[in-house]
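Quick log. Single chain, no ligands specified.
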Amino acid sequence: MPNQNLNREILRLAIPALGALIAEPLFLLADTAIVGHVSTPALAGLALASTVLSTVVGLSVFLAYSTTAAVSRALGAGETRLGLSRGMDAVWLALLIGSLCALVCGLGADVIIGWFGAGPEVKAEAVTYLRVSALGLPAMLLVLAATGLVRGLQDTLTPLLVSVVGAALNVPLNYLLVFPAGLGIAGSAIGTVLVQWGMALTLGFIVVRAARHAGARLRPHLEHLTSAWRDSVPLLVRTISLRIVLITMSVVALRLGSVELAAHQVAMSVFNLFALALDSLAIAGQALTGKFLGAGNAAAVRRTTNRLMLWGIGGGGIAALVLLTVSFALPGLFSPDRPVQEALLPVLLVLVIAQPLAGFVFVLDGVLMGAGDAPFLARASALTMIVFMPGAFALIYGGASGTSGLIWLWIAYSTLFLGTRALTLGYRARGDSWMRLGQA
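-> predicted structure:
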């Protein structure tokens, strides 16, 4: 495939994927901006509850990634029916896992939030948000699996359309429920849950229709669900390692104080929006890598990988410029409290520097996922966690406090965490052992 055509193919997949990827961060940003104007305790409570929710969703992201890899590889090998059958296995697995997580988070919200050691006022807000939001977990995971299936079919436009409609409905609905309806933080959670279920039902209808058209099986089968789960375990291990890092960051921020925790919540939301936007290139990498490997075209995989690395670094540079431009306006948008604003601004400037590195990391992560190289990704992520944790513990036990402690926390994330991921993934991508050709 000539470079010009390859660029067009990357953009055809990446641009629509961008909208779908940032949907959930946009939900969280909307919640953050609206709840931030309720009270600082409410914003801090949202930080804790969203940490739990994002952990559940983050641990389940294999539903999207493994499905994209399996379906795209089957498509490249000319086995579309088999790919759709595997995709439906992931959809059923998503509903099962989501329902179990909803029960645990809904019934155990008080205990789970209590683990963070927050004060009574912050804890009450967090428990309220988590209990309501738990109702949306099955929908959130179904969206992951269905989106992965559709991306595997080389279609990133459909998830974009669903995400745009969802995001457009989420903001006004949350505002109406929080302020005019007077429901506070619970209103924000209710609005988001309603939108999440609307997106899930829409995507569910789309994938079921596609499976029926291809003659793929629709009903769940215990053996197939077990197989889908077993194949996803390495990606789950990878994600657990990454989530431990993010949870540790929230615990450190909590130890620094409520103001720092509130600023950390906004910083993490902004990072997710900008850095995950770069993951749209990784989605293109997943879909194209799986397709070319399924077709047995190793040369196309190498060209795609090299081109995507350049796109990742360049996209990160653009993201850095955009973030730098808006950094001075963002603190006032998310919180009226001056201390929160003063703690947030320097952290945002750290994130500006981290964007090109994040783009490089996300792209290679996507390529290796598309290749089904999950065992290596699990080992690399565990190593990254081991490298990062001493820096976090040094902040906890070294007397770090206030804004300076929060800045050092994000410096550690940007250097130790992202830096180690860049080294391990870059080393792996240089070789050819991850390129397994054919439908296997």
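DSSP finds 17 helices and no strands in the chain.
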